[in-house]
Input
Amino acid sequence: MKRIFDIYFSLIGLVFASPILLPVMFLVWKQDHHSPFYIAQRVGKGEKLFNMVKMRSMIIGADSSGVDSTSANDTRITKVGIFIRRYKLDEVTQLWNVLIGDMSLVGPRPNVKRETDIYTETEKRLLTVKPGITDFASIVFSDEGDILQGKEDPDLAYNQLIRPWKSRLGLVYIDNSNIFLDVKIMLTTIIAILSRNRALKIVTQELKKLNVEQDIVECSTRSNKLIPMPPPGTDHIVSER
Output
C-alpha cells in the first residue's frame, strides 16, 4: 500500500512541479553551464548506497571540502541556490528517487555514509526502512542551516545539537508509521513552507497524541535553545567528527 501511495503521488508531484523546476533548472545551468543536478550518494534501507537526485544549490566541487553539514551562511551556496533551499526545491527533485523505489515520500531523511558509520545500535533501526523526503524531523529542523550558521565545525555541531533529536524523531515515525500519518506529515510539510510556526504546532500536537516522551515534544516546539545531547543509544555526547 505504501509503495502504491509513493508511486502515485511522486508521479503527480513531478508533473505539477515541472513548471517551477524547469525554469529553475535553466537558471542553475546558466550560472556556470554545468548540470543543474547534484547526485548525492546516501545510505538507504538495509545500509544500501543509492544516488539521491538533488537540484544543485552549490558551486561545482562543493563536496570536495569534506564538510557534510551546511550552514545558512555557507559560501558554497550560489545565489540561485539560496532560492532553491528557501523553497526546498532541492528536495522536490527527490520525487524521482521515490518513483524508482530508492526512497519513500515519508521516512527518516537519508544520510551520508560518514554519518551512518557512527550511528549507535539504536540509531541503526533508522536504516531498516526506506529513507524519505520528509518526516517529523524535517519539519522541526527545517532551519538546520540557521542552527549551524557561524559554527566553527558544522559537522560536530550537527552531531551534538541536531542528530540526537532527529534520530529520536525518526524512531518515533518508524514505531508509528501508517498511511494516515504519512498524509498528515506531507500536508504539514507543505504548511511549513508557508508558516513554520503553524507546522511546529501541528507536529507537537501529533506527537502528544502518539504519547511521545515529553522532552521530544518540548524540543519539537523549538521554543528552547538547543544544547549538546547524546544520540539515542548512548550516554556520551559526540566530541569529535
User: Anything to note?
Assistant: The chain has one domain: 2-221. The chain has a mean pLDDT of 92. The first strand starts at residue 37 and ends at 43.
